[in-house]
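Fold this sequence, please.
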Amino acid sequence: MNTRFRLMVFLSVVMLVSLACGAGSEATEAPAVQPSPPPAEAVAPTGPPASQVELGEVLREEGGGFTYQAPLGYDVSAGLGIVSMLAEGADPDIGPSISLIGGPPDPGATAQSLLDQLKDAEDTQLAEPVAVKVGGHDGLAADITIQRSGVEIVGRIVTVVTPENQLIALAGGPKERWEGELEPIFEAILSSITFFKPPATPEPIETPTVVPTQTPEATAEDQGDTLHQWAISATASSEYTDTGWNASQATGAPNVTECADDSKAWASEGYDTIEWLEVSYNTPVTPIQVNIYETFNPGQIVKVELLDVNNNYHEIFTAETQVKACPSVLTIDIPSAGYQVIAVRITVDQTQVLNWDEIDAVELVGYQ
C-alpha cells in the first residue's frame, strides 16, 4: 500500500464501478438551466465525434462539486463525490466503464501530481500526458494500458485541479471496445462537465490531552484515580501485511504525525470491506473514555465495543459512515459503566468511501 490518493482504488479492480454500483445513491438531477461548458481538449479520438454521442440529462454530484451527463444505457451510481458508470452487460472488472471522483483539492495538488501517483502502479502503463481543458479549466490527460486476467484493458485518465475543485476521470475497457466506442463516450462526458464549489471539509475533531509513554509496555500512567492506557496487543479481521499496516501497529502511543497512508498504522487487507480491530490492555479498568486515532480516511468507524473481564461485549458507539477531516481522533465518553474492561473492538465499514480507514492508536481511560 502507498499514498497514491484514491487512484489505486480504481486500478486495483481496474475501475471503481464494480465496487460503487449499489453502494452509492442515485445521481441527483441538476437544475434545469445549466451553463454550456467549453468542450474538453483531449487526446484526439479515432471514433465518431463526441458530439454524436447521446447523453442523458445533466446530473449534479454535490460531494464532488461537479455536474455531468451520463451516456444512455449505462448503469450509473453516485455518492460521496464519486460517480461510476458501467456499460450495459459489461464485466465490472473489465469494463467498459467510466469513473469520476471529485471534491476539494488536496493541499499542494496539481494535475501532474495526481498523475505522478500512478507511475509505479502495478500492471499499468501510463503514456506521456497531454494538455486538456475540462469545464474551462486546464488539466492533463494520459492514455493507460492495464493487463488484467489475461485481458488488455485500454483507457484514459484525466486530472484537473482548480482553486476549489479536484477531479479525476478514468475510462477503460477491452482494447477492441476503446476506439470507436468508449473513447468518444468519455470525451463527450468530459465536455459535459462543469464545476461548482464542493461542500467544505469538516473541521478536525479536537485532539484530547494524551499522557505520554516511553514504550508500549509502559502503558498505564497513574493520574490520581484515573489510568490512561495504550494497547499492549491487537488482533484484526485482516491486515494489509504481517509487518507494516498489521494489527500490532495500533498498539502503543500514536506515532503517525500527519494524515498519511503510513505503515505504522493498522490497515485491513481490503479497502472496500467491513473489518474489525481489537486491542487489549494491561490493566482492567472501569471505562470513562476511549480515544481512537484515525490517520487515513477517518469517519468509517461504525461500531465500538468494550470487552469486559467476563468476556462480554458492551456496545458504546454506532454511527453511519461520514467523511471527516484527516487526521482525526474519535472521542467516546462512557458514563456510569458498571463493568471492568480489558479490550476495545472497533468495526470499520469501508464499502462507502472505498479506501482504507487506518488506525494508529487506541487510548483507554478509566479507573481501577
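The CA atoms of residues 234 and 279 lie 4 Å apart. Residues 1-25, 31-48, 202-224 have pLDDT under 50 and may be disordered.
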